[in-house]
């Protein structure tokens, strides 16, 4: 997976210092209620489609682009479920990053679930009670809990309280 050019340019200036980036994650459910997941190439874990917004790109558009690139599925964003800040991530090269993640609900509008780029090993639709392993539990289970809370309240979550 290639690091976006704009991040490489920022890293030239700030080195390994903590970099805050806008992230997007999508909960894509089909009409049967199945969830779209991809098996990540970097760690082998199954996760919700996610990515980084490009400079100047709207968050919902970023997610539509990321889902299509990673999975081949075209989506429509229907709701903003939550916005939260992740714990710092330290990469093997020492780069430190914090993501401000925008978590959206989506519905598929076209395309087929296929591996769309080098970021995924596999892609598929799964029933909520039959999720594949190994699962990126920290992402998927948190997001499913937030989606459930959103479904109950109809309110976007701005923190984890």
TrEMBL record:
<dbReference type="InterPro" id="IPR020476">
    <property type="entry name" value="Nudix_hydrolase"/>
</dbReference>
<dbReference type="InterPro" id="IPR000086">
    <property type="entry name" value="NUDIX_hydrolase_dom"/>
</dbReference>
<keyword id="KW-0378">Hydrolase</keyword>
<feature type="domain" description="Nudix hydrolase">
    <location>
        <begin position="19"/>
        <end position="148"/>
    </location>
</feature>
<protein>
    <submittedName>
        <fullName>NUDIX domain-containing protein</fullName>
    </submittedName>
</protein>
<dbReference type="Pfam" id="PF00293">
    <property type="entry name" value="NUDIX"/>
</dbReference>
<dbReference type="InterPro" id="IPR015797">
    <property type="entry name" value="NUDIX_hydrolase-like_dom_sf"/>
</dbReference>
């Amino acid at each position: 997976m290639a690091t976006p050019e704009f991040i490489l340019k920022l890293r030239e200036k700030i080195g390994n210092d903590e970099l805050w980036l806008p992230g997007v994650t999508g909960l894509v459910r089909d009409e049967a209620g199945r969830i779209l997941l991809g098996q990540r190439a970097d760690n082998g874990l199954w996760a919700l489609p996610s990515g980084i917004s490009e400079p100047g790109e709207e968050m919902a558009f970023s997610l539509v682009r990321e889902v299509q690139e990673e999975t081949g599925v075209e989506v429509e964003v229907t709701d903003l479920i939550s916005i939260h800040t992740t714990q710092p991530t330290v990469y093997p090269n020492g780069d430190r990053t914090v993501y401000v993640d925008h978590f959206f609900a989506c519905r598929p509008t076209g395309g087929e679930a296929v591996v769309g780029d080098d970021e995924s090993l596999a892609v598929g639709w799964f029933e909520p009670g039959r999720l594949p392993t190994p699962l990126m539990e920290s992402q998927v289970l948190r997001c499913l809990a937030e989606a459930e809370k959103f479904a109950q309240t109809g309110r976007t979550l701005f923190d984890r309280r």
